[in-house]
Amino acid sequence: MNSWAKSLPVAKSKADLAYESLHRAIAEGDLKPGERVNMDELSRALGVSKIPVREAVKRLEADGLLVSRPHAGVTVAAVDVAEMRGVFLAREAIEALVAELAAARITEERLTAVEAVQADMRAALANGELTAMAELNSRFHGLLAEAAGYRVLAELTDQLLLTVRRYRVTAPLDATSWETVAAEHEALLVAVRARDPRAAADAARLHMRSQADQEPTV
Description:
- The protein is mostly helical.
- The protein has helices at about 15-25, 40-45, 50-60, 85-105, 110-125, 135-150, 150-170, 175-195, 195-215; strands at about 35, 65-70, 75.
- A 3-stranded antiparallel beta sheet has the order 1-3-2.
């Protein structure tokens, strides 16, 4: 069984914890698009019965992350590469709005947290730790989305970032591309620090367009 699957601590419900464990494994690429999910192995690896695993799988099917087919079992949903153009267009619109609102509303505490994530990204790049970059990138944008002050924007941001991360499993960024991401984050942070909503929105749009332009398929 994959190393990500470990016995679950006693907290929340077992179905919730199974869901979170599977969701994280899909987001991080430990469970890859098209990979079959063995329910019996999952139950044993997570140290729970099949019932909470089934509940978690049903939730992930509703999220579009797992697919269940007769006689084929449960597999990780494939990423529709043709839809990635729409994902980047949606991110451009949402990230611009998030940046605009965050520049006007962000607290010093949250700004410090975003800057810490940016510093972690720089450190990971300097050390060649590219496997850490996707998670750090998600945290950077997630914190800004929370600073915008609307739960729906945070949820949409998370959903779109998850789609991009799953896409990155088969189309990973190299060090040069991640360096571009980090530089674009810094430009965005300059505007947010200055509490300049218009400049922050513009920086976010440029960031998303730059990322889309790097993708040969979108």
